[in-house]
Write a structure and sequence with these properties.
By secondary structure, the protein is mainly α. 83% of the residues lie in helices and 0% in strands. The chain has six helices and no strands. Helix 1 runs parallel beside helix 5. It is elongated and about 60 Å long. The termini are far apart. Keywords: Cell membrane, Ion transport, Manganese, Membrane, Transmembrane, Transmembrane helix, Transport. It is found in: Cell membrane.
């Protein structure tokens, strides 16, 4: 017999995890959005972020079945280090004369680095979920939709705030990324 309460409980749990994982994309999206961003770039970054929020937990779920004990805190340190580097780079670029940026958030590399940094946690959660019998399709779709939507909201909010902050928006955005990177590490 089909147990409705068990399925509802699993759905609620997956949605709470999806929103929690999407909060990284939201918070970091504010930082990127403060640099000043076009709507087309918001859509592109959010789409790639949603895809990474699908792919990373999927890979994690399969990995979790085999090597869950080997991962530990490595993924948090990697994500934190990446965010610290991106944040420091944004802060330096805010005060640098000229247009000599190493990684532009609108470039393919910048989009991939942002999406990877906010979806590494999804990989870790996927590893944990891989050890349990969770609905694979529901889980990865919920993670992807929440990650993408939260990214859009954060990027648009950051874009709105940056219009009022002027030239300091990029430095503030970099500081946000740097702070989140340090939180991941420590």
């Amino acid at each position: 017999m089909w147990d409705v309460s068990a399925h509802v409980g699993q759905l609620v749990t997956i949605l709470i995890m999806a929103v929690a994982l999407g909060l990284d994309a939201f918070s970091l999206g504010i930082g990127i959005g403060m640099k000043g961003i076009r709507l087309r770039d918001v859509l592109r970054i959010s789409t790639v972020t949603a895809l990474f929020h699908i792919i990373m937990p999927l890979i994690g779920m399969y990995t979790g079945k085999y090597v869950s004990s080997l991962l530990g805190d490595i993924t948090s340190y990697a994500a934190g280090g990446l965010l610290v580097l991106l944040g420091a780079h944004m802060i330096l670029n805010a005060f640098r004369e000229g247009d000599t940026k190493l990684v532009d958030h609108r470039s393919l590399l910048g989009v991939i680095l942002f999406s990877l940094s906010v979806s590494v946690d999804s990989f870790s959660v996927g590893v944990s979920l891989g050890m349990f019998s969770s609905d694979l399709v529901l889980t990865v779709l919920a993670f992807g939709v929440c990650g993408g939507l939260m990214s859009v909201m954060g990027l648009l909010l950051g874009r709105r705030v940056s219009q009022n902050m002027g030239d300091y928006g990029e430095a503030v955005g970099g500081a946000i990324l740097l702070a989140f990177g340090l939180l991941f590490i420590f």
